[in-house]
Amino acid sequence: MIILTGGAGMIGSMVAWHLNNEMNFNDFVIVDDLVNEQQEYNFNKRDFVEYIKKDDLKKYLNKKQNISAVIHMGAISATTESNFNRLLESNIRFSQQLWHWCAKNKVPFIYASSAATYGDGSFNYNDNESELDQLNPLNAYGYSKHFFDRWIQLELAKKQPAPPQWCGLKFFNVYGPNEYHKDRMASVVFHAFNQYKESKQIKLFKSEHPSYKDGMQVRDFIYVKDAVKVIIFFLNNSKFSGVYNVGTGNPETFKALAEAVLSNNTGNPDEIKYINMPNDLKGKYQYYTKARIDKIRSIGFGDNFKNLNEGVTDYLKNYLLTSDRYA
Fold first, then answer.
1. Homologous superfamily of 177-218+251-286+314-320
2. For residue range 103-123, what is the model confidence (pLDDT) as tens digits?
3. Torsion on CA atoms 63, 67, 69, 73, rounded to nearest 10
4. pTM of the full predicted structure?
5. Which pLDDT belongs to residue 280?
6. What is 2-174+219-250+289-307's CATH topology?
7. Which helix (H) or strand (E) holds 52?
8. Mean pLDDT, residues 209-221
9. Which helix (H) or strand (E) holds 209?
């Protein structure tokens, strides 16, 4: 049996989708606290053992002896979250509790880190555990993920008990179905689609960096189905542990993203409008991200990733432009 935290979120619910639809597997438990009622639709098509609230997980684990893995996708994921006490409890303390339980019970532990830990990218997005101390996240969310990554390294250095497998996955810009509850934190693809649907216009932030023209800010966008493939790879290959980037390795511009959305809506590039960046993002905005994926390739992950146009097309045609947008 697999414990899947954050199973009502985007990545977590798509892990459940993959387990059901790609692997014909239903022996898993979804753990989450619903932020809003929309999240129920993220998993109400799934076949699974049980739904558990986050606060009830400890009691549940104490009763179970047949857990084969913990996939920990649950977290506060808002990059604008300013209450560090909330981040401390949800993104650090809860993760530490799961780590200790997995170590004690010899259960593999796969968890969500984030590319936000890389800050402005000064150290080249290198997923090398020995270089974690050099990173400087730009926001409290990124710091909470970075703190846990580093805490694990300290535990290992002190020879403390550890899970038989542990994988920290640094997700880059994930987009795709079941992100609709995330409001402002939903992907630019989702926002661009909604903007065009409502006003026949897509709004992108103007650049405040002299090296980047408006719309030419660059991100490593990865379709959620591809991100889930990485999780499943580690689930099926328990001999590998470490911190790993989860991105395509082929970053593309926000302008290219907007054009992909427009091409699936019979729009044209003239319908892109550039607006000022909000004050709360100034100084905390990444202008360039690129996942280095040679590490995951070196251990045998051979699946191809969709490029931005392919991912956007699947997202729109099979979800956003249909009567039922949930996977």
1. UDP-galactose 4-epimerase, domain 1 (3.90.25.10)
2. 999 999 999 999 999 998 888
3. -40
4. 0.94
5. 79
6. Rossmann fold (3.40.50)
7. strand 50-52
8. 94
9. none
Q: Which residues are catalytic?
A: 141, 182
Handedness of CA 292, 11, 5, 183 (dihedral sign): positive
DSSP string, 26-52: --EEEE---SSGGGHHHHTT---SEEE
Q: How much of the chain, in percent, has pLDDT values that exceed 90?
A: 83
* Both structure tokens of 299: 């251990």
Q: Is 80 exceeded by the pLDDT of residue 150?
A: yes
Say what the pLDDT of residue 94 is.
95
Total Cβ atoms within 10 A of residue 261 = 30
Residues 6+ apart with CB under 8 A from 320: 190, 193
Instruction: Tell me the two tokens of residue 232.
Output: 């499943």
229-268 tens-digit pLDDT: 999 999 999 999 999 999 999 999 999 999 999 999 988 8
- Three-state secondary structure readout of 110-132: EEEEEHHHHCCCCCCCCCCHHHH
- Spatial separation of the C-alpha atoms in residues 221 and 218, rounded to whole Å: 9
Q: Extract the tokens encoding 288.
A: 């360039």
Examine the pLDDT at 2 and tell me if it is beyond 90.
yes
CA-to-CA distance for 192 and 147, rounded, in angstroms? Answer: 33
Q: What average pLDDT is seen over the chain?
A: 94
Spans of all domains in the chain: 2-174+219-250+289-307, 177-218+251-286+314-320
Rounded to whole angstroms, the Cα distance separating 314 from 165 reads 33
Handedness of CA 96, 240, 248, 245 (dihedral sign): positive
